[in-house]
Design a protein that fits this description.
- This protein has 833 residues and is an alpha/beta fold.
- Helices cover 29% and strands 21% of the residues.
- The protein is built from 24 helices and 38 strands.
- Helix 1 (18-30) packs parallel to helix 6.
- The relative contact order is 0.06.
């Protein structure tokens, strides 16, 4: 079936999933002389779509792949029912006979449903297609409980979807831990902690015995082998897949003992005119369920169809994977299960408080990386995966904590960067050089790297930056692939163009629909410029997790309430109100390091009730949830202290009330000390003030955290007016020019000229922008309005504060506490189980 035989050969593709789509696109790109006439027959009523992102369909995401060109005939809602190998025709469910010179079976797989009693009850679903999701969503409208059978990748995605529909969701997994194919026991245990902390029950290590019906004949319970019964009005099976090999069986082609169409390394069946790719193919004794291997098979067959002399083979696949499950980063790469019997050693780090588990598997001489598992923190995934099978550039513990993060330019050329599309570092470098690529979107278009799961995009950008730097080309500061601008440039565009929405910005100055990088960044810019309430209209969809409910999410699914207490000064009456609110709602109370009182344990539907009482008592939002000013801490100063030389408490209150609600690239903290004894610890803050006999010393760009930095002395003996003017300008200049999520400390370090340059800008007005900065701050001060008070006055905004969308007044029953030291604390996970 090579390129030298007769023209206009007929290719029929049975199935139209991701693998089939990739095959057709690869052929269209390479078959420049159009030697193949392509017919695709898919049984779903829609064309191919991205199954990796299936769950996002419930959030309104568009999953469809770009349509094939007009020269490809695509028949949807029709399936191949039989193959006549002698006549080389296929029969379809529409009764048509379609001839072929080559036939590719890309029929995928079907969900495995265990043969348990009750599996056919109403309310029982599988989780495989968009139609499945639509059916689940419709059925679940008036239901309260659900369970997913299967704790693998797709099962946890399904559980997330069920929870997102407002149902109490649980997971049943027969293996001892979650994601047993990707994670070791330690990683599975840590993932379980994360998921249970989100209010989802996990039942692992016990088989399911049956599904029981309720009085109406639909499913009501999942019964486990040990007798435990789990309430579930919706049950979703996602317990594995079975290859769709019935067409091969029907025409006498060999199949595996446990299913799968037997093919050779070139993905060809016993019949030289028939091929199989994707989840229906058994190659090398294995069936592959990840998108990367399926795409690789498609590429192999495309090469083979275009040339009889092609030696393209599928020789296995990188099964590495990285994903975010319900907000939890999870990654597995290489061989995470190798042990001493295979000459391997494990290096493990566990932080149960932060919910982090990391394990590297290395050779017994600790020189070669073999694999690993990351849960809770997968920042180093791209780099670690790139080194699998190669020499470690440093000690294993350095690799574990990112101490040898690669710049991209030092990776071996054969390193697979994008396992989904089998793109190597050398392939990316060659594409950059050959096509003069200067941006990540261009690299993605040219190489396909990063176009599937997207986990390799950070490493793709590092390789691109390294190549551009080596060629003497300025590296793009684009915030993401949707905007060719840095955050500072976007700020100027929004300000100068009077842009009022993300949609307007991306339509006029960007591409696509945005991502979780640019959307929160633009939300911050809009808020910094006073563009209305953050939960108003489109802006609500752009916010980070905590901003959605104007509160900090805690480990057990409850929220904290932090009213503003400027300078730590509070009247007895207000203290009494806080005490009464904490008592009446059963909240845990703690005095914070920022001199405020934090109330923990509030359910989402309680937040408006709590804030109504606080607002009525004169409190306002403390913005503990936002990238904004948090607190201005102070000592008591000269009013009470015998060492104080200025009224630090009054100045702290003045500063906090001036800058409250100011949105920024990162959170901001401040402090004012009344003398050089520095009781308020001002020199560890983003802007800190220390009193002197003659006025105030101003310190800038300090911070605590994982990389503490002492603030730099910026100016001495300032008057009240000078101090406030310089802080105004410092904050506004930072907000305009910093990168996304960049703290003031690293921002100052990135300025060419550092502190001296900053002094020239905001004191000497070197750039001629001081009047503009002053005016911007005055606009902020004049326009300030408390976010919680505004929310309480708006019924539409209040509508989001419910635990379950289909039962607004129902509290989440999975939230539980116990008493310790006379206050509540989240109930330990083992007690919940």
């Amino acid at each position: 079936m090579g390129a030298d035989s007769k023209p206009d050969r007929r290719l029929v593709v049975a199935g139209h999933g991701p693998a089939a789509h990739r095959l057709v696109e690869a052929l269209r790109e390479r078959d420049t002389e159009a030697t193949w006439t392509i017919t695709v027959i898919g049984e779903e009523t829609r064309t191919a779509y991205d199954r990796v992102a299936l769950t996002t369909h419930l959030e309104g995401a568009e999953l469809a792949y770009p349509a094939h060109g007009g020269e490809v005939a695509v028949h949807t809602g029709e399936r191949v029912t039989a193959i006549d190998r002698a006549a080389r025709t296929v029969t379809t469910s529409a009764g048509r006979a379609v001839p072929y010179d080559a036939l590719v079976l890309a029929t995928g797989s079907s969900p495995f449903v265990p043969p348990v009693e009750g599996r056919d009850l109403p309310g029982v679903f599988v989780y495989r297609t968009i139609d499945d999701l639509d059916a689940i969503r419709e059925y679940a409208r008036d239901k309260a409980t659900g369970a997913v059978v299967g704790g693998g990748l797709l099962g946890l995605e399904a559980a997330r979807a069920i929870q997102g529909l407002g149902l109490r969701s649980g997971v049943v997994e027969v293996a001892p831990w979650l994601m047993p194919r990707q994670l070791d026991e330690g990683g599975g245990a840590m993932l379980r902690r994360h998921i249970e902390a989100l209010g989802m029950a996990v039942h692992a290590g016990t088989p399911m015995r049956a599904l029981e019906a309720g009085e109406d004949g639909s499913v009501r319970r999942v019964v486990l082998a040990d007798g435990e019964a789990i309430d579930a009005e919706v049950v979703v099976f996602s317990a594995g897949i079975r290859p769709r090999d019935e067409l091969a069986r029907g025409c006498g082609l060999p199949v595996g003992e446990r299913g799968g169409i037997v093919v050779d390394a070139g993905c060809r069946t016993e019949d030289p005119a028939i091929w199989a790719i994707g989840e229906c193919a058994l190659v090398g004794g294995a069936v592959y369920g990840l998108v990367g291997p399926c795409f690789s098979m498609a590429e192999v067959v495309a090469d083979r169809l275009l040339s009889e002399t092609s030696t393209a083979v599928f020789d296995g696949a990188d099964m590495s994977t990285k994903l975010k499950l319900m907000g939890v980063d999870v990654a597995s790469f290489g061989d995470p299960f190798a042990g001493p019997d295979q000459g391997a050693l494990g290096v493990t780090y566990t932080d149960p408080v932060a919910g982090i588990y990391k394990r590297l598997v290395v050779s017994d001489d600790a020189q070669t990386l073999l694999g690993g598992v990351l849960v809770g923190d997968a920042e180093s995934y791209a780099t670690l995966r790139a080194y699998v099978g190669g020499s470690l550039p440093g000690a294993p513990e350095q690799m574990l904590f990112g101490g040898t993060e690669t710049a991209g330019g030092d990776l071996p050329g054969a390193t697979v960067i994008c396992s989904c599309n089998n793109v190597t570092a050398e392939g990316i470098r060659c594409a950059i050089a050959e096509h003069s690529l200067t941006g990540v979107p261009a690299v993605k278009d040219c190489t396909r790297a990063g176009t599937s799961c997207g986990s390799c995009v950070p490493l793709v950008k590092k390789i691109l930056d390294a190549e551009l730097t080596a060629a003497g080309i300025e590296v793009s500061k684009a915030i993401c692939e949707h905007f060719d601008y840095s955050r500072a440039e976007l700020f100027d565009i929004v300000r100068a163009g009077q842009v009022t929405s993300f949609t307007q910005l991306v339509e006029e100055h960007g591409t696509g629909r945005g991502c979780d990088i640019c959307k929160p960044a633009v939300a911050s810019i809009l808020a910094s410029l006073g563009n209305g309430h953050i939960l108003e209209g489109e802006q609500a969809a752009l916010q980070d997790t905590n901003d959605h409910f104007l509160a900090n999410l805690q480990k057990n699914g409850t929220y904290s309430v932090v009213p503003r207490v400027p300078g730590g000064e509070i009247t007895p009456e207000k203290l009494i109100v806080i005490g009464e609110v904490a008592r009446d709602f059963g909240l845990y109370t703690k005095i914070t390091g920022g001199q405020r009182i934090d109330l923990f344990g509030a359910r989402v539907e309680q937040l408006p009730e709590i804030w109504r009482r606080l607002v009525d008592a004169g409190f306002e939002s403390g913005h503990a949830y936002g990238k904004a000013l948090r607190t201005v801490k102070s000592c008591v100063g000269s009013t009470w202290c015998r060492y104080g030389v200025q009224d630090s408490a009054a100045m702290a209150i003045r500063l906090e009330l001036r800058y409250r609600g100011l949105r920024a690239p990162h959170k901001l903290k401040s402090a004012v000390s009344g003398c050089a004894r520095e009781c308020a610890e001002a020199q560890s803050k983003d802007f800190g003030v220390i009193a002197t006999e003659n006025g105030w010393n101003l310190y800038l760009a300090g911070n605590g955290g994982m990389r503490p930095r002492h603030a730099d002395l910026f100016a001495t003996d300032l008057s009240d007016g000078e101090l406030i003017t310089y802080i105004d300008r410092f904050l506004m200049f930072y907000i305009r020019t910093a990168d996304r999520l960049q703290r003031t400390a690293s921002w100052l370090e990135s300025l060419d000229g550092g502190l001296d340059y900053l002094r020239e800008v905001i004191v000497d007005d070197r750039l001629g922008i001081c009047a503009d900065l002053d005016a911007a701050m005055e606009r902020h001060v004049a326009a300030y309005s408390d976010e919680w008070r505004d929310t309480l006055d708006d019924p539409d905004r209040l509508g989001r504060f419910v635990s379950f969308v289909n039962a607004p007044q129902t509290p989440d029953p999975s939230i539980a506490f116990e008493v310790e030291r006379d206050q509540i604390k989240p109930l330990p996970l083992e007690v919940k189980r």
